[in-house]
Amino acid sequence: MTASLTIARDGDVAVLTLARPDRRNALDLELCRALHEAVEDAVATQARAIVVTGEGSAFCAGADLDGVYGDEFIEALYTMLHGLTTIPVPVVAAVNGPAIGAGTQLAIACDLRVVDERARFAVPTARNGMAVDAWTIRTLAELAGGGRARRVMLAADTIDRQEALDCGLADRAGTVEDAIAWAREIAALAPLTVAHNKMILTGRGDEDAVAASFARVWASDDVKEAAAARLEKRDPVFRGR
Length: 241
Prior knowledge:
With 241 residues, the protein is an alpha/beta fold. The chain has helices at residues 29-44, 71-86, 102-109, 125-128, 134-144, 146-155, 161-167, 176-187, 191-201, 207-218, 221-232; strands spanning 5-10, 13-18, 49-54, 91-95, 98-100, 112-115, 120-122, 158-160, 172-173. It has 11 helices and 9 strands. A 6-stranded mixed sheet has the order 1-2-3-4-6-9, sandwiched between helices. It has a 3-stranded mixed sheet with strand order 5-7-8. The longest helix is centred in the N-terminal third of the chain and has 16 residues, at 29-44. It is globular and about 60 Å long. The two termini are 30 Å apart.
């Protein structure tokens, strides 16, 4: 735990809470680095799912404008964001309030999004003269649709909770507790299969990596465990090997 991030464990689920409520959980250099380190630690300690949320009434209000203009911050931000897409563990964003600018980037870097009644998304770079990377814009278009992404990026528009649910930017309505419950369900699934699927969905595996992952899944003990569980009429217990 750092001053700006709370780390908790719920069985196989790591829960990471942005803890700068006085700044509406805006991302600064320390928080970006802490979040990246916490995610790496969660993977290293065999977490099978991760939940990211915010303390208080905001998920993340964006980048802390007091420190946003430095190369060091930009590097830390994108190392953290892109790191979420490359880990083999699924990440659920519990969007418990506005996700603005870097907050939307953080939400779409996660694999799934659960939104409460206060959630909304925006990337108002056209209002502050800044820019986001191509991955952000393309991912937003992939998730929300090209038309909505154009509204957000070209007209500085906002996507509210219901629209996010309707267009697929958000996956479920619910609270932080609902997101953790879903993460527990995901954590019970076959981890090698989930990692394989995530690698392909995020487009980060080349042909050789995908083929090796496919072979590893089919050669795993988890395939045998699933077959045994079917015969014994019980739930499988996957070990990730």
